[in-house]
Write a structure and sequence with these properties.
Length: about 110
Amino acid sequence: MTIPAARNTDPSTSHAADEFMSASGRRAAQQQMTAKAVECYPGLTSLELSDKTSMDRYVLARRLPECERDFTVKRGPSRRCTISGRDAVTWWRPSDVIQVQPTLPGIAA
C-alpha cells in the first residue's frame, strides 16, 4: 500500500505534487538515493548526510521517514549534529545494531 505524502487537509497543489512525484518515478529515485546515502554514511543526521552527499537536506528530511516505513533505513538515537549544533535524529542501515549508552546526571560516559 502506498502512503500518500499529502495529508487530506493539504491544498490541492500538494496532492498534485504528490501524484507527480510518484508517477514520474522521482520519489522512488530519491528514496533509493537516500537509502544509499545512509548505507554509505550510517549514523549521521539528515544535515550531515546532506553535507556528505550534496543531496538537498529537505529532500533527505522528506525521504528518510518514507525509507524508514519501507525498512530501508532505521531511525537511531538523537545526538548533537556536528553542523547545526542542535540535537537531531541519526539514521542507520537496517542491519546496524544501535546501542544507546544511558546517561545519568553527574556521571561521565
